[in-house]
Amino acid sequence: MSPMSADALSLDEHGFPLLDGQPLKLPPKERAVLALLLRRQPAVVSKDDFAQAVWRGTVMSDESLARSISRVRRALAGPGWQLESVYGIGYRLHPPAAGPGAPVAEGGATRWTSVALAAPGVLDTYLHARQLVQQRTPEAMDRAIALLRALLREHPDYTPAAVALAEALTAAVGWGQLDTPAVVQDGLSVLDAAAARDALTPGLDAAHGALLDMAWRFDEAARAHAQALRSGANDPDTLMLHARHLLYTGQAEAAVARLRHALTLAPHHLMLRMHLSRALVQAGQGEAGLAEADAALADHPGQLVIVAFALAIRAMVAPEPDLAAPAWRLTEGRDTPPFVWTVLSFVLARLQQREPALDVIDASLLCSRTTPGEATLYAAPLACLGEFDRAAALLRRALDERCGMLAMVLRDPVHADWLRGHPEGRRLLAAVFGPAGA
To answer: Whereabouts does the entry annotate DNA binding, in residue ranges (predicted)?
Structure first.
């Protein structure tokens, strides 16, 4: 039998995998797995096929197959070959898109293809959980986390749910809703388990970096984001999470460039445009940031989160008296989410309506269930009113609770001037960003 060649990967006459004509150093099981994939390529190889052809009648557990697949993936990562996990069916081998050794770009379509390969009930639960996370309320976040944990218990091979769970945990620790050190470790364990099953699941490395950012482990996060970009340079969510890391670490202009590229790939992605608006303001480009907020508002009419966000950006960049009326209207609906009150207080503070602003802040902090993360958002209006000690006390509480979003709050332009001149402010900056950050 002559060698079966596919780019630089082939089989010799004995069925031994070769790379550029040289034997691949793999254990016997993994050699047999790769040989079967290459023979069937581009078809999907089912789990039953692996059991019959490789395990030959001995017991094959899902874990043993996942370990073998993971080792084969590592062996092929350099040459650029991909092993696609086809949910509920098996695995398929893909040759490099641009020759051996070329990086594989992970696009939005790849991410959503991975998500969509699921039974209808599984996909519906996944999408519902993602929508709940976007609401950013404690109740919605708790429900999303519970749904995703249950989904992974019933369908452990559906690794996109692990990425979604890590993202939900990231949001929850950001708001101070859950204990940061324990939850970050839990999220990292979830991602490690998913990687053992399917190391090429889109979003794994980016979610890893986002969790580390929440724990203020920025050096480790930078390495995770760099790894994510090697395979996900064209994935909008990967780019957004890296841009957020850049904002945490004071690299606003680099974040702007990253987000502009991401928007060319997903021009209607609301969170991308909101992040870009914030990054532009943080980079000192207030008018451009306001234009992005207005563009998001036009593209997503009626969504409360962007209406409130755009009001806050306008109050920061161009405060005008006519902003007060729409800010008050935000609070008139039933079941008003907590972020509405922070926006109202900020608008009033920027307009120097001192007494109404303090009334809103006091009522919100004293009479509602406010997490330490949510409370940090009232530091900005307090700072605008010159109440620096009160603002510092709210930020200190978030530090004591290790609320992940404190890093972003400390980068808010409203806090740029007073923090470094305030004794507590300098301690906060050093605690989150290290001595250089102070």
So the answer is: 1-95
